[in-house]
């Protein structure tokens, strides 16, 4: 029987259980994908801890790459033998093999291997919609990217630089600062030791940035609002440090008619046409070498608990894979 990591209760990494699972033939509209690599993402931690509740027991994981082994009735997006990758639900990517709605799958271009594919889909499509849809970054825009050495951060930093932005990144350590700088940050701020809001004002000559991409959440949200120029855009897209407390809207007026959005990849890729268009943009910048996808950590799939511990302890940089 194939194996998968499943959760039967929420809690620490110990709840990730390596289970033998039954796998039915793909239902109509589904494809069976044998994974060659699975992507690790911070959202997996939220599902495991219960911050984002899911009915239990449940699979876990939203990103993988592999080969289509079988298709159900009515599938025309992919064929048996295709090399594919995906980001998104339903949960269950931490598996050797799985069934998934075929409309979630993208065919991998020839030059992109399974490991790069699994590493780039969720974080790369996120960078794509954040920089190209939520707030369309233009040359000359000053942008602030938190956790710039992380999974989304390292991809977004390179992409923003390629778009001609002035990129300011925050990181939690000197080693991460060097990494962020090497990937295109014009200015790097260690927010563990420096007041990032004051530094952003200094760097932008008092003006503030056009947009903040904030996946850190609780610890940075207030400072992020204070880093914006008038009419600037606050993009709160994650909560690695904990959920953001409720916001009194009057603050947006007082701080200069600010915009706030709390987006998710799922809304931006719910329609297949949007998923394909965003995927094409991502494959384009990766294929041209403007954005390099870097896997800095790999773990055996059955060791997913250790990967979660390291991610939550801020020990990882770039992208992380789980290998079946
Ligand atoms: N809304 C969406 O569509 C969407 C999609 C993908 C990801 N996300 C969000 O984007 C964020 C980044 O995701 P990722 O998978 O690429 O993870 P990641 O950035 O590789 O890892 C999280 C990073 O957050 C920073 N961090 C700051 N305070 C932290 C704390 N108290 N605990 C843990 N980490 C902390 C750490 O970097 P430093 O040490 O440098 O501070 C850490 O490495 C997450 O919040 C995730 O949920 C949202």
Strand and helix map with partners:
Elements: E1 3-7, E2 16-20, E3 30-39, H1 42-49, E4 58-59, E5 63-71, E6 83-87, E7 97-101, E8 106-107, H2 114-134, E9 142-145, H3 151-162, E10 166-171, H4 174-182, E11 187-190, H5 196-203, E12 209-214, H6 221-225, E13 228-236, H7 250-254, E14 259-261, H8 265-268, H9 272-287, E15 295-300, H10 304-312, E16 319-323
Parallel strand pairs: 9-10, 9-12, 10-11, 12-13, 13-14, 15-16
Antiparallel strand pairs: 1-2, 1-4, 3-5, 3-7, 3-16, 5-6, 6-8
NADP nicotinamide-adenine-dinucleotide phosphate (NAP) is lined by residues 41-43, 122-123, 126, 147, 149-153, 171-172, 176, 215-216, 219, 237-241, 263-265, 311-312, 314, 316.
Mean pLDDT: 98
The outline comes out as globular
Provide a count of the helices.
10
Distance between the termini: 14 Å
Main β-sheet: number of strands, strand sense, barrel status? 7 strands, mixed
Share of residues in strands: 25-35%
Helix- and strand-based class?
Answer: alpha/beta
The number of strands is 16
H-E string: EEEHEEEEEHEHEHEHEHEHEHHEHE
Radius of gyration: 20 Å
- Helical content class: 25-40%
Bound molecules: NADP nicotinamide-adenine-dinucleotide phosphate
* Spans where pLDDT lies below 50 across 5 or more residues: none
Task: Characterise the protein shown here.
This protein is α/β, with parallel strands linked by helices and 324 residues long. Helix content is 30%, strand content 27%. The strands form 3 sheets. Strands 3, 5, 6, 7, 8, 15 and 16 form a 7-stranded mixed sheet that branches. The protein has a 6-stranded parallel sheet with strand order 11-10-9-12-13-14, with helices on both faces. Helix 2 packs across helix 3 and helix 2 (114-134) crosses helix 9 (272-287). The two termini are 14 Å apart. The model has no long low-confidence stretch (mean pLDDT 98). NADP nicotinamide-adenine-dinucleotide phosphate (NAP) binds at residues 41-43, 122-123, 126, 147, 149-153, 171-172, 176, 215-216, 219, 237-241, 263-265, 311-312, 314, 316.
